[in-house]
Design goal:
Radius of gyration of chain A: 20 Å
Number of domains of chain B: 2
Number of helices of chain A: 16
Oligomer: heterodimer
Order of helices and strands of chain A: HHHHHEEEHHHHHHHHHHH
Radius of gyration of chain B: 35 Å
Number of helices of chain B: 24
Distance between the termini of chain B: 129 Å
Strand order of the largest sheet of chain A: 1-2-3
Structural class of chain B: alpha+beta
Strand content of chain A: under 5%
Chain lengths: 364, 644
C-alpha cells in the first residue's frame, strides 16, 4: 500500500502546521467550555477523538494513489448524494435544521464530506478533459455542484452549501476556463466584501444584505453577535487577556464561542500576537497546498488539490472575517479549529488527498 | 510534462491565486491590528461595561428612638425589581414577560418605562419598589430570559406604630429641586420629604455603598471585584415619650374627633407628645406611594396631609384670657383682687357686649373670672390694658409667634396690634376691637403648638422655651446629647401673677369650671377650655341644610400640671369638638399616663369610646361656667338638648 519511499515525500511541514492549528483549536475549546461553575465539559476530549479519527481518515486518503479515488469519484459522489437525500428525509433535527445522521451517540454531518466528493468529481471531470473547457463543460460541472448544494441548502444549511461554489470556481479557474474575468470578480467580491461592510454601507443596507443572505436570521440577534465579536477581538489588545481569562468568551457574551467564534476567543485571550501566529499558520497551510498543486505531476492532481483547498480557504477567510465582526454572522465554522467532528474528519481527510498529490509527484 | 504550454497556464493561474490569498491575509492582519491595537481602548471599555456591574448598596436610614429607647422608626428589607435597559435586547419582550410574571397590566409597566425613557440607559427603571416574595420568586425563576431585570435588596423605612405620622413625616425619592440644592444627593436617593425625616435628613441619611461585580451574559454574578459597604444613617433619640404619645393617640381614638395635641416639658421645651389627626400611613410612602393613594390623600376633605399642630390656625377663644390677665397684672393695670361686676352684658364704646351667662356672674375677682370664664370681666380688663400691651404679653408667652419647633413648614399665628393694623390694613385700631380680642375672638388666631408654648411659659414662669424633638444623636460612637435650643424670650413674671393664673386654672378643673373632665386626683391639674368658632351665627343659620361640611365649633383644652411646680404643659385641640371639655378627656388620659409612668405605676387603660359605658358624659349644655363665644349664646338657648 504505502510504499516506503513515499513516506519520505510526505510534506511534514504542512502536516505539522495543520496539527498545530488543531492543537490551538483544542486549547481554545477547552478555554471556553470548561467552566468549573457550569459542570465539567468534555468537548475538548471529543475534539481530540475527532482529530485522531481524522488522522485515521487521512492515512486512508494518503495510502492509495489519488487517481484511485478520482477513478471511483462517481461512486463517492453518488453515495454522498444518497446520504444527503437520506438526511433530508430521516436526518436528526437540531436547532431547527435537519443536518445529521445519528450514529450511536455521535452525529455524522454528510454535508462536510460533500465538499470532498465534489472536489473529486470535478477534478476528474476537468482532468480528463484535454484543452480549454467549453461552455458545456462548465454547465455540466455546475450541475454536478448544484445537486449537493441544493440538497444541503434545503436542510437548511446555506453556509455549508455556499462553500461548494468556490470548489467549482477554483477548479474551473485553474482548468483554464475563459470565464477567468468572472472568477477574478468573484475573488474581488470576497476581498471587497468585508471592507464594504465596514466602511461603505449604511446600517440599513447592511441589515438588508444580511436579511437577503438569510431571511430566517433575526437581524437584531445577528447584530448583537457581530457587536460582541468585535468587542471580543478588540478588547484582546496586543497580547491578549491570557488563557482562560477572556471575559467575553468565558462569561458567554459571545454566543457559540467554541464553534463559530473560536477565532474571536483566540483573539481575545492571545491578542494580536496570537492572531498573527494563527493567520500565519493558515496562510502557510494554504500556500503550501497551492505549492502541492503546482508540483503535481498531472492536471488531475492539481485540480484535486485546488478543489479541496477552495472550500477550506473560503471558510477560513470568511470565518476569520466574521469573527472580527467584519462580515455578517453565518453559521460557518473555522476548519481545523472550530469544534465539530464531521468537519474535522472531512478536513483532515481532504488534507490527506493534498499530501497524497504532493508525495506522489514522482510516481507514475 | 506532455503539455508544457498548458502547464504554464496552470502555473500562472496558481500564481494569481497565491497572490490573491496573500493580499486577503494581509488585509485580515491589518483589520485585526486596527481592532486590537489601534482601537483597543474603546473595545476594552465596552468589554468591561459588558461584564462589570456596579450595584448600589443602599444605606439604611438611622433608627429613631423615643426618650426611653423605644424604637419609633426602623427599617426593614424589601426587594425592588427594575429594568436595566443597558442590557436589554428587546424591551418589548422584557416588558411583556415582566408584566406577566408580576401580575401587572402590560400597559402599566410600559407607562413606567416610558416615563423614564429619556434617562440614561444604565440607570435602572424601578418597576416594583416593594415586591412581594411571590413576585421575586417568579422573576428569579425566569432569570435566564430576563438578563436585563435586576432584583435589589433595599432597606425600607418602617413605622411600626400608627402614631405621630406628621411628626415622623415620610420619605420619598429625591426630586430635581432637591438635587439642585444639595451636591450630596443623586437621582434615586430616598430622602425625607416632611417631618423629622426631612428636617434631620442629613443626619438620618447614610452613605450608600457599592459593589462591583462580574456578571456573565445572562446577568449571573460570577464574583465580586470590589465592595464598599454602606454606612447606616445616624440614630436619633427624640424627646417624645412613647407611652404619652400613645395615650394621646388613644385618647383621640376614644373621642372620635380629628385634631391636634402637643405636650411639652415646660422646663426644657422637650416635646413629650405631638400629634395631628387624621393622619396618613407613612409606610405607604416608604415603598413608593401609588398615584391613587396620593391623589386620595390630597383630595380628602379632612386633609390628612395637613399637620394641624403647626399648620392649623384657629381662634383661641377663652383660652386667650390668661394672656390678657398676664398683661393686665404685669403691667400693673390690675391686681388679682381686682373685682368686676358681671350683669350678663356690658357696654363699651356705645356697643353692648354679652357675657355667655345670660343672668350674669355677679361680682368676682380674677381667679373666679378665669374659673367661670366670665366675658364681662375680661372685656373690662382688656379694655383697661389696651391692645398693644395685650399683644406684647401674648407674644412673650408665645402666642401669635412661631414656636420654632424643629419641624418644617410651621406657620405663624396672629395677635393683632395697632402697628399690625396700620401696616397691614393701613387703618387705625378702634378701641372697640380690643373688647373682642380680650376673649380670644376677632383677629386672634393661633396654632396648637404655640398654645403649648403659651402654657409652658405660664408653667415655668416666663421662659418662652423652644420646643425641641431631637434629644440625642448616635453616629456610631455612642449617644451624644443635643444641647437644648435657646428660649425665644425670657421675662420674669411675678410670682403673684403666676399664682393667681394657676389658681384660676386649677379651679377650672377642680372646682366649678368646665375642665372637670381633666380632673386627676392628687395631681392638681390646671386647665382652661376654649371654643373656636367655625362659622358665625348668621352664617350658621344661612348654611343650615345647605352644606354637608361640619360647622360645629372647635374645642380647645390647654393645661399644666401640677399647679405648683408644673412638670408638663400642653394643648389638646378637638376639631369640631364643639367644646373644650371633650378635649379635656384626652388631656386627662395623657396626664394620667405621664404621672403613672413617672411613678412606676401600671399605665392606665385607654378611655372608653364615646357612647360606651363608663365614658365621661358629654357636657350638659348650658353648663355652669360654659364659655361659648357671645354670638353663640342665643343658639345654645335654642338647642339645649343633650348632644349625641
Amino acid at each position: 500500500m504505502l510504499e516506503r519511499r513515499l513516506y519520505f515525500h510526505i510534506d511534514w511541514a504542512l502536516l505539522l502546521a495543520v496539527l498545530t492549528l488543531c492543537g490551538l483549536g483544542v486549547a481554545m475549546i477547552y478555554s471556553t467550555t470548561s467552566d468549573p461553575t457550569r459542570g465539567v465539559s468534555r468537548l475538548h476530549i471529543t475534539q481530540i477523538y475527532a482529530i485522531i479519527i481524522g488522522l485515521g481518515a487521512m492515512v486512508v486518503t494518503l495510502s492509495l494513489d489519488y487517481r484511485t479515488f478520482t477513478d471511483k469519484s462517481h461512486l463517492v459522489y453518488i453515495t454522498l448524494v444518497g446520504l444527503l437525500l437520506y438526511v433530508i428525509f430521516f436526518g436528526t433535527v437540531q436547532m431547527g435544521a435537519r443536518r445529521w445522521i445519528a450514529l450511536g451517540s455521535y452525529n455524522l454531518q454528510p454535508s462536510e464530506f460533500a465538499k470532498i466528493g465534489v472536489a473529486l468529481v470535478l477534478a476528474k471531470y476537468f482532468g480528463e478533459n484535454r484543452g480549454v473547457p467549453a461552455w458545456g463543460d462548465l454547465i455540466l460541472a455546475g450541475v454536478l455542484t448544484l445537486i449537493p448544494l441544493a440538497l444541503i441548502a434545503k436542510e437548511p444549511d446555506l453556509g455549508t452549501a455556499v462553500t461548494l461554489l468556490p470548489v467549482l470556481a477554483a477548479v474551473a479557474f485553474v482548468a483554464g476556463m475563459r470565464t477567468r474575468i468572472l472568477g477574478i470578480l468573484a475573488v474581488c467580491v470576497l476581498v471587497a466584501a468585508p471592507i464594504a461592510w465596514k466602511f461603505a454601507l449604511k446600517d440599513y443596507q447592511k441589515s438588508r444584505i444580511s436579511t437577503f443572505l438569510d431571511p430566517s436570521q433575526d437581524p437584531k440577534g445577528a447584530g448583537y453577535q457581530q457587536i460582541q465579536a468585535q468587542i471580543t477581538v478588540g478588547s484582546g489588545g496586543l497580547t491578549g487577556k491570557g488563557f482562560r481569562r477572556g471575559t467575553q468568551g468565558q462569561l458567554r457574551f459571545l454566543p457559540v464561542a467554541h464553534n463559530d467564534f473560536i477565532f474571536s476567543v483566540l483573539a481575545e485571550e492571545q491578542g494580536f500576537a496570537g492572531v498573527l501566529v494563527a493567520l500565519g499558520l493558515y496562510l502557510f497551510v494554504i500556500l503550501r497546498a497551492l505549492e502541492a498543486a503546482r508540483l503535481s505531476k498531472d492536471r488531475l492532481g492539481s485540480y484535486l488539490v485546488l478543489g479541496v483547498l477552495a472550500s477550506f480557504t473560503f471558510q477560513v477567510i470568511y470565518n476569520i472575517t466574521m469573527s472580527a465582526g467584519l462580515a455578517p454572522v453565518k453559521g460557518l465554522t473555522l476548519p481545523l479549529m472550530s469544534y465539530g467532528g464531521s468537519s474535522m474528519i472531512a478536513t483532515l481527510a481532504g488534507f490527506g488527498l493534498i499530501l497524497n498529490v504532493r508525495m506522489r509527484r514522482f510516481t507514475n | 510534462m506532455a503539455l508544457p504550454e498548458d502547464r504554464r497556464a496552470l502555473s500562472s493561474r496558481l500564481g494569481t491565486l497565491q497572490y490573491l490569498i496573500a493580499v486577503v491575509f494581509s488585509v485580515l492582519a491589518v483589520s485585526f491590528w486596527v481592532l486590537q491595537v489601534a482601537q483597543h481602548e474603546k473595545y476594552a471599555e465596552l468589554a468591561e461595561n459588558n461584564n462589570q456591574r456596579t450595584l448600589a448598596l443602599r444605606a439604611p436610614r438611622g433608627v429613631v428612638f423615643d426618650r426611653n429607647g423605644q424604637v419609633l422608626v426602623e427599617n426593614r428589607h424589601s426587594y425592588s425589581i427594575s429594568i436595566l435597559r443597558e442590557h436589554t435586547k428587546d424591551l418589548n419582550r422584557t416588558v411583556q414577560l415582566l408584566a406577566t410574571l408580576l401580575g401587572f397590566e402590560e400597559r402599566s409597566v410600559r407607562e413606567i418605562v416610558d416615563r423614564h425613557r429619556r434617562e440614561p440607559s444604565y440607570r435602572p427603571i424601578v418597576i416594583v419598589q416593594d415586591a412581594t416574595l411571590h413576585q421575586v420568586a417568579a422573576v428569579t425563576a425566569r432569570r435566564l430570559e430576563l438578563p436585563d431585570v435586576v432584583i435589589e435588596q433595599v432597606p425600607t423605612r418602617q413605622y411600626p406604630d400608627r402614631m405621630a405620622a406628621h411628626l415622623f413625616g415620610y420619605v420619598g425619592e429625591v426630586n430635581d429641586a432637591q438635587i439642585a440644592g444639595n451636591d450630596e444627593l443623586k437621582s434615586g436617593d430616598v430622602v425625607g420629604q416632611s417631618g423629622i425625616e426631612k428636617i434631620y435628613n442629613d443626619l438620618l441619611m447614610g452613605d450608600d455603598g457599592a459593589r462591583v461585580v462580574v456578571v456573565n451574559s445572562v446577568g449571573r454574578e460570577i464574583r465580586t471585584l470590589e465592595e464598599q459597604p454602606p454606612t447606616e444613617g445616624k440614630r436619633l433619640q427624640l424627646t417624645i415619650d412613647y407611652d404619652v404619645q400613645k395615650a394621646v393617640e388613644d385618647g383621640f381614638k376614644a373621642l372620635g374627633y380629628n385634631g391636634a395635641a402637643v405636650l411639652l416639658d415646660p422646663r426644657s421645651g422637650d416635646v413629650l407628645a405631638f400629634t395631628s389627626i387624621p393622619a396618613y400611613d407613612p409606610n405607604a410612602f416608604a415603598s413608593g406611594i401609588d398615584r391613587a393613594t396620593w391623589a386620595a390623600l390630597n383630595t380628602d376633605e379632612d386633609r390628612p396631609l395637613n399637620d394641624r399642630a403647626i399648620q392649623g390656625r384657629y381662634s383661641p377663644g377663652s383660652t386667650f384670657k390668661m394672656a390678657v390677665a398676664t398683661a393686665a397684672l404685669e403691667e400693673g393695670v390690675i391686681t388679682p383682687d381686682f373685682k368686676v361686676h358681671c350683669g350678663g352684658s356690658a357696654t363699651f364704646y356705645g356697643n353692648s357686649f354679652k357675657c355667655w351667662k345670660a343672668g350674669g356672674h355677679g361680682t368676682m375677682d380674677l381667679r373666679h373670672a378665669i374659673e367661670q370664664s366670665c366675658n364681662v370681666y375680661f372685656y373690662t380688663v382688656g379694655n383697661m390694658t389696651g391692645i398693644d400691651r395685650i399683644h406684647k404679653w401674648a407674644s412673650l408667652l408665645g402666642l401669635g409667634e412661631k414656636s420654632f419647633i424643629d419641624l418644617p413648614n410651621e406657620i405663624q399665628g396672629l395677635v393683632p396690634s395697632t402697628a399690625w393694623k396700620r401696616e397691614k390694613l393701613n387703618e387705625r385700631w378702634y378701641p372697640g376691637e380690643t373688647i373682642s380680642v380680650a376673649i380670644g375672638q376677632g383677629q386672634v388666631s393661633v396654632t396648637p403648638v404655640s398654645m403649648a408654648v403659651y402654657m409652658a411659659t405660664l408653667a415655668n414662669g416666663g421662659t418662652r422655651v423652644t420646643p425641641r424633638l431631637l434629644k440625642a444623636v448616635d453616629d456610631g460612637t455612642g449617644w451624644k446629647e443635643v444641647p437644648a435650643p435657646a428660649p425665644q424670650s425670657k421675662v420674669e413674671i411675678h410670682e403673684t401673677t403666676l399664682q393667681a393664673i394657676r389658681d384660676g386654672l386649677w379651679m377650672v378643673v377642680n372646682q366649678a369650671g368646665t375642665g372637670r373632665n381633666a380632673l386627676l386626683k392628687g395631681y392638681d391639674v390646671g386647665g382652661k377650655t376654649g371654643t373656636a368658632q367655625v362659622i358665625s351665627l348668621e352664617g350658621l343659620r344661612a348654611a343650615k341644610g345647605k352644606t354637608t361640611r361640619n360647622l360645629a365649633d372647635h374645642g380647645w383644652f390647654v393645661f399644666l400640671a401640677p399647679r405648683d411646680n408644673p412638670q408638663v404643659a400642653g394643648v389638646i385641640f378637638a376639631e369640631h369638638g364643639e367644646h373644650g371639655s371633650t378635649a379635656a378627656i384626652v388631656a386627662r388620659h395623657a396626664l394620667d399616663t405621664f404621672f403613672a409612668k413617672k411613678e412606676g405605676r401600671p399605665l392606665p387603660p385607654p378611655p372608653p369610646k364615646r357612647g360606651e359605658p363608663g365614658a365621661p358624659a358629654a357636657p350638659a349644655v348650658p353648663l355652669e361656667g360654659d364659655d361659648p363665644p357671645p354670638t353663640r349664646i342665643a343658639e345654645n338657648a335654642v338647642s339645649s338638648q343633650p348632644r349625641p
